[in-house]
Structure formats: structure tokens, C-alpha cells
Design goal:
Elements (H helix, E strand, L loop, with lengths): L19 H8 L1 H7 L22 H4 L1 H12 L20 E6 L3 H11 L4 E7 L3 H13 L6 E3 L6 H6 L5 E4 L6 H10 L3 E4 L7 H14 L3 E3 L7 H11 L6 E9 L3 H4 L9 H4 L11 H10 L8 E8 L4 H9 L17 E7 L4 E7 L11 E4 L2 E4 L4 E4 L20 H5 L10 H15 L7 H8 L1 H10 L5 E2 L23
Parallel strand pairs: 1-2, 1-4, 2-3, 4-5, 5-6, 7-10
Antiparallel strand pairs: 7-11, 8-9, 8-14, 9-10, 11-12, 12-13
Helix pairs in contact: 1-2, 1-4, 5-6, 8-9, 9-17, 10-13
């Protein structure tokens, strides 16, 4: 699928939840509008009401209303299936892959799937046929049979998902399409991996959880930053107790995207920029949240329980437009409401605090912050530095390179991986395909996907309610109390 922004179809196959959350959605359309967090931009066809202000927003009326609405949707509905926590893939000699979306990200990621033994790309899909055909040529150049091409229209991905010779569907499309595509893949018996964020609305997150449990198919947020070399080293050190009792962490997506968001050739259509006309909160929490959640064993012994968010005034995109865009450019019709910088504080059941930041509209060197602190010391990234007792007692940072012995086995085995983002993309794809081939439990699951994405709707609502803390749903329905493995894996026997 190309990068054009298109309205996501309303869910049809999965019934809405019963209980308190459903009651709120039926009786109070204004709360439903807020919690389902897609905007009523003119012509968007999303039908969920404007979020920019006025009486359409529960948060615009009062903080108690916002809390009541969030609590209603946070309440866990009755489980429709069985938990997917700890459920392994079916073992198979070859993983057959279908890829939906062949823009910038999809075009680069297909190379990594083709680089792995035991993986076949069986089908590709994009509404721009030239992109699909380019991807198909990559497949044949790698020595594999020509894949099926799905480029008829924006619903042709449904036909890809219906194929009987696909095990895994990779979704790499504009954000509003992630939910319907993940849903379609699971309804057709496919495991599915989705780029960030996995959905844009709380109700969609619950539906993905329920559907994964009902279909017995994994639905995963393909969070590449969890596989970064530093992130995986810190993970192993944290689990070995080098930081003592964990107390706090921080993660972010602070990345100046102004030029790219106004570049019609980079994002095909203004889909990413348009989200800044719809939501005030953290649009992209996963890169920072995922690694810190792994350090703290969120969903595996601890869970996040609340979020409080604040945001600055939205000045950056309008200022960039003023300086760089011609008077007749379509962007002049846009009104930006997204905070230039969003800061959220997330509390866990064990009393830990996670700070999340999002800023793509201001001048700023790239940073995911990636910090972790405990009773014995602290690590901070960008630049990487560490301070651990009893080794460090002089109030000066130490060299993180001294701790290379703690590198994860994936980085020891693949010291110089191919692909982008420093190799983390390749490590992620290699590990996922390995888990599928060997019949292993995936490193993360639908519950992690839902938690890492929940700040998208909740930060928006909290900002509109002046930073009031809002509950984060327990998507595991109590399974978080059970310790289980995650990213800190042991090397399997092939």
C-alpha cells in the first residue's frame, strides 16, 4: 500500500465489547469520539467527530468526564478466547510471507526478508502498481519464484490475506490502515506483524487483542528499536540485576521530520502530517516505550497502570510552512493542533515511572533518550553513558563500551548485520522468522503491541484534560502477574 492517507473502514466482523465501555460508546458519542481518537477532518470519512475542541470532546468539558470515559474503556471486557501469552508459533521449515505496503519502509524491508534462508515472499501488495512490480523484481532477483501482485485497488490486500500459501502478513502502510489490515490477516488465519503504531484507537486495540485470542494467531508490533544493540545490552544488564531494583526509565521519539513531512515525494500524500491536524498527543510512542517496557518486564511481572500527559503549543509545523511553502500549497488549508513536544509520565503497578517524549516538529538532533535507572545506578543514551555502583563512585559517567560482554546473543552472532537503522531491522526480522521456523514463542505479542500503542489515544485525551492521569487498560486481563520470557531470550538450537 502506498503512503496515501485513506480512511480506515469501520470494523464489521468483530462485535463491539459489551459492558461498561460499550455503554459509554453507545450513550455518550462525545466520549466515544475522544477515545476512538481519529479525527473528523472534512472529507476523511471517519465519522468520529472533531477532536480539535468544543463540545465534541469529553475532555473539553471536564477532567472528571475524561477520567470516567477512560475508565469505562479501560475496563477489561469478558475474554472471548484464550490468552496468547506464551503461545508458540507452529513449527515450519519455510515461512511464507505476504507484504502489504511497498513505500519507503516496505521497499527497504523486503530486502531483509529475502536475505534470510527458509523465508519466501509469496505475494506483494500496493495500490501503486509500479511499487509492487519493483518489489516483485527484487523477489525474482533473489532467486525466488515470482510473487503474486495485488495492486487492483485499496481493498486488494484482502485478497492477499485470503491466500492459502501465506503464513505471515507484514503490514507497512499509513497508520489508519494498520488496524483493518491486521484484523483481515487474522480473520484469514494469518499471523501478522505491523509497523508502528498498531492502531489509533483504544477500541481497536481491544479488538486486536480479542481477535488474536479467538483466532490463535499472533498480532505483533514490529518494534525494531527493541532490537537495538544498546537496548538489548541494557536489557540483559537490567535482568542480571546490575541496576539494582529498577525505579525509572525514559524513552522518546525526538526526530525533526519537518522537511520530510512537507516533502510530497517522501510521504506519498500528506498522511503523516495530517495526523498533526487531528491529535494533540504522542503519535509515535512505541520506539521509546517498547525498550523501557522490556527492561521493566511490563506484562511479565509488572504492568503500566496510568498515564499523564502535557504538551506545548503547536507552532513548529506552521512556522516551517511559513518559511518554506509556496502560498498556493495545499498545506495552507491545514490547522495544526498536535503539540510540538508531548511529555507523558507512565506509572507501573510496582511504582516505577516511565517518561515518554514525542517531538517531530522542532529543531532537535535525533534522540530516543533510552534511559534506565535503579538503586545501583543509571544508563543514559544519546550519547551512551553509564554510572553503576560499586564500580563508579566519583560522580562521573563511565564508558558503556566496557560492558560489551553483556551483548545479547543475537548481536554476538550478527556483529555486523545488514539493513538500516544500525542493523536493528535485520535483527528483528531474523529473530521473528527464526521463532516462526522453530516453533518458538515470539519475543513480544498482541498485549505488548496494545500497551506500547495505548499512549496515542490516551495522551491526547490527557492533554485536553490538562494532564489528568488516565488509566491504561490491562490488556492481559491479569496475565501480567505471571513472570514469563520476552526479549531476553536464550539462543535456540536450530
Amino acid at each position: 500500500m502506498n503512503d496515501d492517507a485513506r480512511p480506515a473502514p469501520e470494523p464489521r466482523d468483530v462485535p463491539p465489547h459489551s459492558g461498561a465501555a460499550d455503554e459509554v460508546n453507545r450513550q455518550d458519542p462525545s466520549r466515544r469520539s475522544v477515545l476512538w481518537t481519529t479525527a473528523g477532518v472534512a472529507g476523511a470519512g471517519l465519522g468520529l467527530g472533531a477532536l480539535g475542541g468544543g463540545t465534541a470532546s469529553a475532555a473539553g468539558r471536564s477532567a472528571p468526564d475524561a477520567v470516567a470515559a477512560a475508565e469505562a474503556v479501560a475496563a477489561a471486557p469478558p475474554r472471548q478466547g484464550r490468552t496468547m501469552a506464551g503461545v508458540p508459533f507452529e513449527r515450519r521449515s519455510t515461512v511464507r510471507v505476504g507484504i502489504i505496503g511497498l513505500g519507503n519502509r516496505g521497499d527497504s524491508m523486503i530486502d531483509l526478508f529475502l536475505a534470510l534462508p527458509g523465508v519466501q515472499v509469496k505475494a506483494v501488495c500496493d495500490t501503486v502498481r509500479d511499487k509492487a512490480e519493483k518489489a516483485a523484481k527484487k523477489v525474482t532477483a533473489a532467486g525466488q519464484p515470482a510473487p503474486a501482485i495485488y495492486a487492483k485497488d485499496e481493498h486488494d490486500y484482502e485478497n492477499l490475506c485470503k491466500r492459502g500459501d501465506i503464513d505471515f502478513v507484514y503490514v507497512v502502510t499509513p497508520w489508519e490502515l494498520h488496524f483493518p489490515m491486521a484484523k483481515t490477516a487474522m480473520l484469514n488465519g494469518k499471523h501478522v506483524g505491523v509497523e508502528c503504531p498498531i492502531a489509533m484507537r483504544l477500541e481497536e486495540l481491544w479488538q486486536l487483542v480479542d481477535l488474536s485470542e479467538r483466532t490463535r494467531r499472533h498480532c505483533m508490533q514490529l518494534e525494531n528499536c527493541c532490537y537495538g544493540k544498546n537496548e538489548m545490552r541494557v536489557l540483559r544488564m537490567a535482568h542480571a540485576g546490575l541496576f539494582g531494583e529498577l525505579q525509572h526509565g525514559a524513552g522518546a521519539y525526538n526526530h525533526d521530520l519537518r522537511e520530510l513531512m512537507f516533502d510530497p515525494d517522501y510521504y506519498e500524500g500528506p498522511w503523516r502530517r495530517l495526523w498533526h491536524t487531528r491529535l494533540r498527543g504522542d503519535l509515535y510512542p512505541n520506539h521509546g516505550f517498547g525498550p523501557v517496557a522490556n527492561y521493566m518486564d511490563v506484562n511479565r511481572g509488572d504492568r503500566v497502570v496510568s498515564i499523564s500527559s502535557v504538551g506545548t503549543t503547536p507552532l513548529g509545523l506552521a512556522a516551517y510552512r511559513e518559511e518554506h511553502m509556496e502560498p498556493g500549497d495545499p498545506s495552507w488549508k491545514e490547522s495544526y493542533i498536535g503539540a510540538d513536544r508531548t511529555i507523558s509520565l507512565v506509572q507501573t503497578a510496582k511504582g516505577r515511572v516511565i517518561r515518554l517524549e514525542h517531538d517531530v516538529s522542532s529543531p532537535h538532533p535525533y534522540s530516543r533518550i533510552n534511559s534506565l535507572g535503579g538503586t545501583k545506578g543509571v544508563f543514559e543514551d544519546y550519547p551512551e553513558r553509564i554510572y553503576l555502583e560499586p564500580t563508579n563512585t566519583n560522580h562521573q559517567w563511565d564508558d558503556f563500551k566496557k560492558y560489551a560482554e553483556w551483548d545479547h546473543w543475537l548481536w554476538k552472532e550478527h556483529a555486523n548485520p545488514p539493513g538500516g537503522h544500525g542493523g536493528m531491522d535485520y535483527i528483528m526480522v531474523f529473530r521473528l522468522m527464526q521463532c516462526m521456523r522453530l516453533g518458538l514463542v515470539p519475543d513480544f505479542d498482541v498485549y505488548d503491541a496494545a500497551v506500547w500503542t495505548a499512549p496515542v489515544p490516551l495522551s491526547h485525551l490527557s492533554i485536553k484534560a490538562k494532564g489528568v492521569p488516565l488509566p491504561i487498560p490491562d490488556f492481559t486481563r491479569g496475565e501480567w502477574k505471571k513472570a514469563r520470557s520476552g526479549m531476553d531470550s536464550e539462543k535456540p538450537a536450530e
